[in-house]
């Protein structure tokens, strides 16, 4: 079982960086989110090449360091090691492909879970925390069937580590998420665009 760690109640998942704009604009938006109180960030940029992602990650990491925030890379574990990021976020596909924890304990590891098998596997490999999604309808994954709060509660209860509710979340749903067994909420647009990042 993962050791207890100090985690905020809000977990920012970044949106895709626009391919036709300089990274400086994206990092500037990240800076504003951090200034508003975000202290845990997942750099999600699936459309970038590995080299582009590493270049952006270096800039995002420097930005997070200035605000004493932690940055997890949505990338292979080797990249988190080489860039000395705070950890890695495993997609559900990467999660299920891992026979053991891919990083030592000094790195954070989160995992994306959508069903019981994934939550249990995250337990087995020692995830420090997980996201369970999608709880509610979300503009990011419009075809995904929402779990709803009842199923979320059931899945969250299976976890050994703190759980973030993801999918349709905002600060308005934080209390409901915690009542359903979540440590907090993870979000893209609500925390990036609207500045809803006051919760710690």
Report what the structure shows:
This protein is of the alpha/beta class and 200 residues long. It has helices spanning 23-35, 50-66, 77-83, 92-97, 116-124, 148-158, 174-179, 189-192, and strands spanning 10-13, 40-43, 70-73, 87-90, 108-113, 129-132, 163-166, 184-187. It has a single domain (10-192), classed as Aldolase class I (TIM Barrel). Strands 1-2-3-4-5-6-7-8 form an eight-stranded parallel beta barrel, surrounded by four helices. Helix 3 links the parallel strand 3 (70-73) and strand 4.
Number of helices: 8
Strand content: 15-25%
Q: Rough shape?
A: globular
> Which CATH top level class fits?
Alpha Beta
Q: How many beta-strand elements?
A: 8
Spatial sequence of strands, sheet with the most strands: 1-2-3-4-5-6-7-8
CA distance, first residue to last residue: 24 Å
Q: How many structural units, i.e. domains?
A: 1
Integer-rounded radius of gyration: 16 Å
List SSEs in N-to-C order: EHEHEHEHEHEHEHEH
The overall average pLDDT, rounded, is 92
Enumerate the spans where pLDDT stays under 50 for 5 or more consecutive residues: 195-200
| CATH domain topology | TIM Barrel
The portion of residues assigned to helices is: 25-40%
**Oligomeric status of the shown chains?**
single chain
The CATH homologous superfamily corresponds to Aldolase class I
CATH architecture heading: Alpha-Beta Barrel
Q: Structural class, judged by helices and strands? A: alpha/beta
Q: Tell me about the biggest sheet? A: 8 strands, parallel, barrel
